[in-house]
């Protein structure tokens, strides 16, 4: 595919566009969480469980990903379990730890909400050449690492 001409933009305009996307996404996450009967933190934690797939995370893994204490993640997991989103399974290598698995019906319910959005995003990506998709992917990955590193630095100074 031939890359389509794109309007010129400055780094400041790109940053502004990114801020707008993030703000829109945050509002959307709150609304979607309400639709599925969860808090944003609980929905985020559930997303990490889904993302892990067969490599079931521990409560400690989730606490680190969501930046909460292990006590707080216990409350999150209790709510997710009561709502039918997850099950806890004993760790086969260490009986003191538990692993967290997503309930297939809950995964289907959440995917049902997100699928129309992801379909639209895929249509948007189809407007870009493979080289542009590679740049976008590189930027998303590098920006995610930068954001995580910055949050880690910020958390340590508080």
Automatic annotation (TrEMBL):
InterPro entries: HTH_MarR-typ (IPR000835), MarR/SlyA-like (IPR039422), WH-like_DNA-bd_sf (IPR036388), WH_DNA-bd_sf (IPR036390). SMART domains: HTH_MARR (SM00347). Residues 1-145 form the HTH marR-type domain. This is MarR family transcriptional regulator. It comes from Streptomyces dubilierae.
């Amino acid at each position: 595919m031939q890359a389509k001409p794109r309007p010129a933009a400055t780094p400041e305009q790109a940053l502004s566009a990114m801020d707008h996307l993030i703000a829109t996404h945050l509002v959307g996450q709150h609304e979607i969480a309400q639709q599925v009967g969860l808090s944003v933190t609980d929905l985020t934690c559930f997303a990490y469980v889904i993302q892990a797939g067969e490599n079931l995370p521990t409560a400690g893994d989730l606490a680190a990903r969501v930046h909460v204490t292990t006590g707080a993640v216990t409350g999150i997991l209790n709510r997710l379990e009561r709502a039918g989103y997850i099950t806890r399974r004993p760790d086969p290598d260490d009986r003191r730890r538990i692993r967290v698995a997503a309930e297939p019906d809950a995964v289907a319910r959440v995917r049902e909400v997100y699928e129309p959005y992801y379909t639209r995003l895929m249509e948007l990506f189809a407007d870009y050449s493979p080289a542009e998709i590679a740049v976008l992917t590189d930027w998303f990955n590098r920006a995610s690492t930068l954001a995580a590193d910055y949050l880690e630095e910020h958390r340590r100074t508080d």
